[in-house]
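User: Predict the complex with nicotinamide-adenine-dinucleotide.
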Amino acid sequence: MSFKNKTVVVTGGAKGIGEGCARIFHRENANVVILDVDKDAGAALGKKLGDRNLFIECDISNENQVEAAMKSAAEAFGGIDVLVNNAGIMKYASVTDTTEELWDAIMNVNLKGAFLCAKHAIPYMQKQGGGVVINMSSAQAFMAQDKVAAYATSKTAMLGLTRSIAVDYAPNIRCVALCPGGIDTPLNREAFAKSPDPAATEQATIDLHLVQRLGTPEDIGEMAVFAASEKGSFLNGHPIKIDGGIGVKIGGSGAK
Ligand SMILES: NC(=O)c1ccc[n+]([C@@H]2O[C@H](COP(=O)([O-])OP(=O)(O)OC[C@H]3O[C@@H](n4cnc5c(N)ncnc54)[C@H](O)[C@@H]3O)[C@@H](O)[C@H]2O)c1
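Assistant: Here is the predicted structure with nicotinamide-adenine-dinucleotide placed in the model:
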């Protein structure tokens, strides 16, 4: 699956799942452009990748920054072929515990940010005759942990954004949503660390997955590469669950 001379923009690409996507696309010879608010992690990853990469400091919830970043990405490598709309934030709160500020903060990054990045990347894809948008949704588009009101809503809405992009820009531009289960990233490590018993919380999370492990950022990167490649060219508009079988088992039968 060669992405030689193709340019892939990964938002939130400095850490976690975004880093996994950046690494796997880079392995497949893509030029990788990382948009992130974390300058230090972005610079460190750039060094590790070596060639064919560019880090742009960008808050994806700010339209001016996104527009400028997409322009820089396209100018650096001569276009944009793939956008991985990955950057996202998660804070635990039920509906009654969610302040207006928290709701807006989560929606602004997870949903508005993805919309803005698509809005400003798609014209470059159109110019060159095609492209692929990968939207990082979540298993939480189909099921919910407790106290994820804004987060789960944002991830469910991303499936609507995915359909709209697929419908409006077919046939040359495709859009696919990936719905990961629990992945071993700084986001989850922070959530485990904040719980009363981090080890027990991690094990309980692992136990939800039939494969008895958390996913890795690279598990998601491999699927993103496949979905964006020619081999994935029949995928469009729908979500792909990549979640180690979370939610498949509904309980024990009690049978001996
Ligand atoms: N980790 C999981 O278990 C899991 C499961 C399903 C879906 N997801 C989704 O995958 C995506 C990545 O999650 P992760 O676990 O790697 O998170 P993470 O917190 O480990 O990494 C997220 C990255 O996004 C960057 N970022 C945050 N806000 C930004 C902004 N406004 N503009 C640009 N960059 C920003 C951060 O600096 C960081 O580098 C998120 O959209 C998340 O909702 C994660």
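The first strand starts at residue 7 and ends at 11.
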